[in-house]
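Structure in, sequence out. Go:
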């Protein structure tokens, strides 16, 4: 859309049309503000739609479907729906999901009467933004409030000379022309582990090189171990822990990675998944007083306000947790604060976190490690998919639900789930934690049978049993809890 000179001043100018930009813009427009959103890419959606969440999760679904992975071994045959799967099979589905996402964003923008300007933005000073687009005159936009929602990008170490064919990052991975027979993933974080699982499910020989000992190191050790076990035993991924890279070279159409201890590994493709940095280059933020840290993440206060009072920042550009969900919420909170809208004052502290590996992993609230670090008393109740009828039917028997709760009040403070469906199931735990519920909610509730939801009940029973053991050790427990604990044994 063209912006006429008399309309170049807005209540809010948002830079970036990813999830943070779109939702921040819509929030302000919903409350009657005149909003302009600037995006340099031809299509909206940012990393969420174009290079991150949506493509990778569509790829995961496609990989599970075409490889028949969910049903492998269940019916006495090794079900592989389409062994000669091609990249076109992937891309067809990915394209249609992405195109629908673009349409939904465009509809949302139109519904909220948000003005859009295509081009790369940069601040001339704290009040004036210049938008440049190849072949057109730069435009100047002014606003009462700016929201920087420019996201993040992969930043592989200098040893990786990305060529988009043999050595790729998570962006250029989506443009490869063939599914590799062998893949080396460098990085044992979320993105590295997710792609390692997907390609292994498709039959690629996958090697994962992790500089830390633990995969996805912010997960509890038992959860990280369960992931590693599944990746190695079920998916056949070879994992090198505590490994550093000496060199990465391309030899013809293959890559050769040499580790610090001299181990040499060759593969058709190397994926560098070693971290991301904030997209601030060329924006001119520092020159006007906005603080940016060593990883190029914009520094903000609890209201997502930068050091320049009318400039806010939200989403991946401010760093952790760098999720689509948190990015959207941060932007809504930022905008409400900027215009003093008594609507949304803070991002929920009960934020679910999903890892789309095979198996899925989801967490919300406290982990065992965070509770130990705080020195908070806690007890744990567990239930395994193996003991659950639905788990037995689907064949996904290695998963589990783990409840962390306060031993005195029995308030649930954290939930972790490993296994298929974890990223949906976690919302039950999220709700109970947010409403300050206790184990008793699960004990009293009737769950559908057969369902994975029932696992919450049995994890709660197990929690009561753990409490009973603790009280026996400490010399007795109140009678009401004793009865409840007996229920759990029944
Ligand atoms: C492989 C991968 C998998 C992921 N999986 C998940 C997942 O399963 N669940 C989840 O919650 N999150 C996931 N994420 C993270 C999620 O994609 C991001 O958290 C989310 O996209 C961040 O939103 P954002 O709006 O802050 O930034 P982005 O989505 O990155 O959008 C920023 C936008 O700003 C634009 N921009 C940048 N600079 C300028 C400029 N100077 N001028 C104009 N426009 C500019 C960019 O073009 C872009 O469109 C994944 C990410 C990756 C890479």
């Amino acid at each position: 859309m063209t912006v006429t000179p008399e309309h170049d001043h807005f209540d809010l100018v948002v830079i970036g049309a990813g999830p943070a930009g779109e939702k921040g813009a819509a929030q302000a427009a919903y409350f009657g503000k005149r909003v302009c959103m600037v995006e340099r890419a031809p299509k909206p959606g940012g990393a969420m739609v174009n290079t991150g969440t949506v493509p990778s999760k569509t790829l995961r679904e496609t990989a599970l479907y075409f490889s028949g992975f969910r049903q492998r071994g269940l019916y006495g045959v090794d079900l592989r729906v389409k062994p000669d799967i091609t990249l076109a099979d992937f891309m067809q589905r990915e394209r249609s999901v992405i195109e629908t996402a673009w349409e939904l964003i465009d509809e949302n923008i139109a519904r909220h009467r948000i003005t859009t300007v295509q081009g790369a933005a940069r601040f001339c000073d704290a009040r004036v933004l210049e938008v440049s687009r190849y072949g057109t005159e730069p435009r100047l936009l002014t606003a009462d409030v700016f929201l920087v929602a420019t996201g993040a990008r992969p930043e592989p170490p200098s040893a990786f000379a990305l060529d988009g064919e043999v050595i790729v990052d998570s962006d250029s991975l989506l443009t490869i022309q063939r599914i590799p027979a062998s893949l080396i993933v460098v990085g044992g974080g979320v993105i590295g582990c997710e792609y390692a699982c997907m390609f292994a499910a498709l039959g690629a020989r996958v090697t994962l090189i992790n500089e830390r000992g633990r995969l996805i190191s912010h997960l509890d050790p038992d959860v990280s171990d369960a992931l590693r076990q599944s990746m190695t035993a079920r998916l056949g991924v070879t994992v090198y822990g505590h490994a550093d890279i000496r060199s990465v070279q391309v030899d013809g159409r293959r890559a050769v990675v040499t580790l610090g201890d001299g181990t040499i590994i060759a593969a058709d493709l190397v994926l560098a998944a070693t971290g991301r940095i904030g997209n601030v280059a060329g924006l001119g933020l520092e020159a006007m007083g906005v603080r940016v840290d060593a990883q190029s993440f914009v520094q903000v206060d609890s209201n997502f306000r930068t050091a320049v009072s009318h400039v806010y920042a939200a989403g991946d550009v401010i760093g952790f947790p760098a999720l689509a969900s948190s990015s959207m919420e941060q932007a809504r909170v930022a905008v409400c604060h900027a215009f003093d809208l008594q609507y949304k004052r803070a991002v929920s502290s009960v934020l679910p976190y999903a890892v789309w590996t095979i198996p899925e992993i989801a967490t919300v609230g406290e982990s065992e490690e965070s509770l130990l670090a705080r020195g908070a008393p806690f007890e744990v109740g567990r239930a395994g998919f193996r003991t659950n009828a639905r788990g037995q039917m689907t064949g996904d028997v290695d998963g589990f639900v783990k409840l962390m709760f306060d031993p005195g009040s029995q308030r649930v403070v954290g939930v972790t789930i490993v296994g298929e469906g974890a990223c949906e199931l976690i919302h039950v735990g999220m709700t109970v934690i947010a409403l300050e519920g206790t184990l008793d909610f699960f004990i009293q509730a009737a769950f559908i049978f057969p369902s994975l939801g029932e696992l919450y009940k049995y994890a709660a029973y197990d929690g009561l049993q753990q409490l009973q053991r603790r009280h026996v050790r400490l010399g007795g427990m109140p009678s009401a809890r004793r009865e409840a604990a007996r229920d759990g044994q029944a």
